[in-house]
Amino acid sequence: MTYAKPAKRRQSVLRLIISAAVVLSACSSEEGEKGEITVDAAPSSPLVTLVANQASNNISAFMINATTGALVPVAGSPYPAGGTTPGGIAVSSDGSLAYVANQGSNNISAFTVEPSAGTLIAVPGSPFSTGTTPSRVAISPNRSFVFISNQGSNNISAFGVTATGSLTPVAGSPFPAGFTPSGITCTPNGAFLYVANQGSNTVSAFTINVSGQLAAVAGSPFAVGTTPVGVLVSPNGSVLYVSNQGSNYVSALAIDASTGALTPVAGSPFATGITPAGITISPNGSFLYVANQSTNNISAFAVGGTGALTPVGPPVPAGTTPTSVTVSPDGVFLYAANQGSNDVFAYTIDGASGTLATVSGSPFSVGVTPRAIATAGRP
To answer: 23-37 burial, b for 16+ CB within 10 Å, e for fewer?
Structure first.
């Protein structure tokens, strides 16, 4: 596919920005030793958006027009998910690998993302067995580990990632979580992992050692709202945000940089629309967005210095039952997967205010019951 020169220049600038900002360090063992983790420098593939379609058991793949934000289907899309009822999807920080949790077949599919066209190629040996009803996927920032929340078996599967993208179980995996674990995320430095437990209204917190093994943080699990489903960590690693479907708000929890323990941010929780689900944040940490399933809209917030949230205007209309949201790696566009209307709404993000404006041509059709959407390194 051929793009205009301004789009190419923009992607080149993006790669330079990302490469300058992603060398991070992380805890390396349960005994407290320190090690260095070098995060993949930049997306090696074009700007790609992937959507997991539960009812049609496939993956819709799109190239992002870097100038307009419009979505252009990748050749060969949609791709077979490699399992049944795909419910979670994640793309590595360098954009080269994608993993899909298949709830109906209790496995995870692995794909490489072709660097010039964004096409998906199944990794040899894929899919790989997980626990029961795998729900969501998190990839460590250095692309060394993949973690999957298993709703049916109440645990976390941990895998090491080989050079080809295939997965090998981490020693001791799976690791216990709370009841019905759902959303899962790593801190930007790869030191901690957090999992939202829908059935127990808590967040489990873990340290990650250099082998990918998990150990519960002291005080874990931590109480949040009712039916927590979505989790993410601010880009600076200081705050965890949790969307709580049953209580219609977002919990904001400060992360202790040494231990990973959580304490509520002043003013938390913050009201959203009804049945908040997917949650995402701009790469610079200035704006946070939440998909409200029952009100069919997106709530936007400005993020304060402490992590507190302030609404940015009224919620913006989305499609029917928006369930997952993601921001493009350059922070310019937001995408919402709407499982009730089988489409993706696209928006431009005002860099100063965080307000959203609909992209021309939106919405874009996908498969049946889109459950999750992701871009490189972005939930």
So the answer is: ebebbbeeeeeeeeb
